[in-house]
Amino acid sequence: MEELLQEINEPVAGAHGVRLLLWRDDLVNPTLPGNKARKLKYNLVAARQQGHHALLTFGGAYSNHIAALAAAGRLFGFKTIGLIRGDAPAKGSGPARLNPTLAQATADGMALHYLDRSSYRRRAAPEFLAEQLARFGPAYVLPEGGTNALAIPGCAELVAEIRQRTAFDALAVAVGTGGTLAGLVTGLAGTEQALGVAALKNGGFLQTEVDGLTQLAAGQAFTNFSLHTDYHFGGYAKYSAELLGFIQQFQARNGVLLDPIYTGKLLFGVLDLIGKGYFPRGSTVVAIHTGGLQAWAGWRERFGGSEA
């Protein structure tokens, strides 16, 4: 396995006296990479303890969570059911018409079903979940993104793993549903801080989400984190030539590929904050590469070109 903690020698960090490191969570488990594996860890234990043989979840057509849950089902012997936001492929089009994420999920054994956007908005409603379980049979239900109370301790374990290798002042992570950030927050100690870079537009609600998750998992809200909502590049999975250019340049300088939905925005935001003097001189900042590189296949399909 490659070294999980890498020095990132960006000129702006050197100029501002900040030591920048990158934790490669995408390398921890190559068969189930990134933060999704951490979110699933204790959920899979609970599913087994409760006697479930099937896992049911929700996601978009290019979802990292859908990809991860399908892989987890194959690896750990669960049947998996994915309720996908959007329209099904045209009749008679066959598997080839599935995008790369859903094609791989199908190859991993996931049964795909599609929900129109109106139905999908009801995904957390108890009566809607009851309808789905009546339709598909007993299953352990995971929310969109895999974020729930049991996801938090799995993500919290990452803090100790990083601390074993280096002292740090701040951990930085991309934020979608808030679960990974909430987990990090509960694992911090002393003066350690976490910061989240929102990957979606209008991410102000995430403060409430993180507070709610830490209340569920640890019985309290925390003040040792900040959220930054200015680096979404137009919204979730939106195309941006500036962002893609940054990802290409970052890979050329550091030999690390970022993804265009989460980690590209994270590192862009962290470097911008360093340039603005957000971190005091002498700080050690660890940015977390949460994986998500499977998204590149779908990105190329939609927009053409490549990551390199």
UniProtKB/TrEMBL annotation:
It comes from the Bacteria. Its cofactor is pyridoxal 5'-phosphate. The modification N6-(pyridoxal phosphate)lysine is found at residue 36. Gene3D superfamilies: 3.40.50.1100. GO terms for molecular function: D-cysteine desulfhydrase activity. Keywords: Pyridoxal phosphate. The active site is at 63 (nucleophile). The keyword Coiled coil does not apply. Residues 13-291 form the Tryptophan synthase beta chain-like PALP domain. Pfam families: PALP. PANTHER family: 1-AMINOCYCLOPROPANE-1-CARBOXYLATE DEAMINASE-RELATED. Belongs to the ACC deaminase/D-cysteine desulfhydrase family. This is 1-aminocyclopropane-1-carboxylate deaminase.
